[in-house]
Amino acid sequence: QVELVESGGGLVQAGGSLRLSCAASERIGTMAWFRQAPGKQREFVATLRRSGGSTFYAESVEGRFVISRDNTENKWYLQMDSLKPEDTARYYCAAAVNRLINTAVAMQHMYPYWGQGTEVTVSS
Fold first, then answer.
1. What is the pLDDT of residues 46-68, one digit of tens each?
2. What is the spatial distance between Cα 74 and Cα 49, in angstroms, rounded to a whole number?
């Protein structure tokens, strides 16, 4: 059983930045971030595949968020810049031990392991 521990959420003004971190108890093949805003369904944010380093982003965060990983540890990050009030949500890291194919990276059910979530609030 892979355990994920997130950190880094908080309150920030619009235009500001935050960095989220996720630490896994084992080596991960595909690492991702999802988010769930109040009253909405959880949605895909970004994915990074360990093999090859490919990244994928939701259109709503492309150019503002960057997913990256620590090359020496089982950790990955979500650097969030130019934050907007609509980015307010609970952010979850998710992981799959295997390498997911392109068409699967945004599918929640393809990730068997999830963190507890961390709150991000962007004030206007």
1. 999 998 889 999 999 999 999 99
2. 12
